[in-house]
TrEMBL record:
Residues 219-275 form the Conserved virulence factor B-like winged helix domain. Belongs to the CvfB family. It comes from the Bacteria. InterPro entries: CvfB_fam, CvfB_S1_st, CvfB_WH, NA-bd_OB-fold, WH-like_DNA-bd_sf. Coiled coil: none annotated. This is GntR family transcriptional regulator. Residues 4-63 form the Conserved virulence factor B first S1 domain.
Length: 276
């Protein structure tokens, strides 16, 4: 059976006027239109193609890379709204439909939203939903404290940046832990700072605790080298000055230079730090 909404290895069976007919190992066929066929090919070649449903709900293949895949989240632009719902540009010819009942708030043409792509069990169609929370759970966590994870920022409030962790869990980067400009739709490698008793996840972009000293120390060494061996920063520098120069919190900066000083890799002098 063809896997709708996924890339899969498909063999070229034959060329016809509409395009190439491909098939999986079970013999299920799908059309790859001519505009997507490779420049050079032979019958029997295997292509990695993405399969979706066209406007007549027929399976069709493409070699284009969609902005979101089945059972995953993407940051998509709303290109059209009508009486049935919204339509999102997701990188392939047919737009992704988001019905009104699947909109966390009414979508507007030209705006961007975090959307989940799923296969509707009743219609067999690929559908989008901006009601992301219903696809997430924190009851059974698959992460531990200090784990490196992938996060997608859904929205930002006064509390901080709300994120999807590894496509499965809800998390939050608190305002106090943000030292750079963040926006909805940004993806980052991040770290689990804390797992609360209610299983809420505190997330940071820099490795927390003692684990942050080594990478930050290496980063400062690289910045020192690039600056000719001297940086006009020290433990008395203003937090904003450190953040603007290195993108680090003052606490992380002090830990890092303390480690470098102890290892005799830098000297702390009047006006800043320099390489030994």
């Amino acid at each position: 059976m063809l896997k709708i909404g996924e890339f899969q290895e498909l063999k070229i069976l034959r060329e016809t006027d509409p395009g190439l007919y491909l098939a999986n190992e079970e013999g299920d066929e799908v059309l790859l239109p001519h505009k997507y066929k490779p420049v050079k090919f032979e019958t029997g070649d295997v292509l990695n193609a993405f399969v979706y449903l066209d406007n007549q709900q027929r399976p069709v293949a493409t070699t284009l890379e969609p902005h979101v895949k089945l059972n995953d989240f993407g940051y998509l632009r709303c290109s059209q709204v009508n009486k049935f719902g919204a339509f999102m540009d997701w990188g392939i010819e047919k737009q992704l439909f988001v019905p009104y009942k699947e909109q966390a708030r009414p979508m507007k043409e030209g705006s961007w939203y975090v959307v989940r792509l799923y296969l509707d069990s009743l219609t067999g169609r690929l559908v989008g939903s901006s009601k992301t929370r219903r696809f997430l759970q924190n009851d059974e966590l698959t992460v531990d404290k200090f784990d490196q994870v992938e996060v997608l920022i859904t929205h930002i409030t006064e509390q901080g940046a709300h994120v999807i962790v590894n496509g499965q869990h809800q998390g939050l980067i608190y305002i106090a832990d943000i030292f750079e400009d963040l926006h909805s739709g940004d993806r980052f490698q991040a770290y689990i700072k804390k797992i609360r008793p209610d299983k809420k996840l505190d997330v940071v972009l820099q490795s927390p605790g003692y684990r942050s000293i080594e990478p930050n120390a290496q980063y400062i060494l690289e910045e020192l080298t690039a600056a000719g061996g001297f940086l006009p920063l020290h433990d008395k520098s203003e937090p904003k000055e450190i953040k603007d120069t290195l993108g680090l919190s003052k606490k992380s900066f002090k830990k890092a230079i303390g480690s470098l000083y102890k290892d005799k890799k830098i000297k702390i002098i009047e006006g800043g730090i320099e390489l030994c």
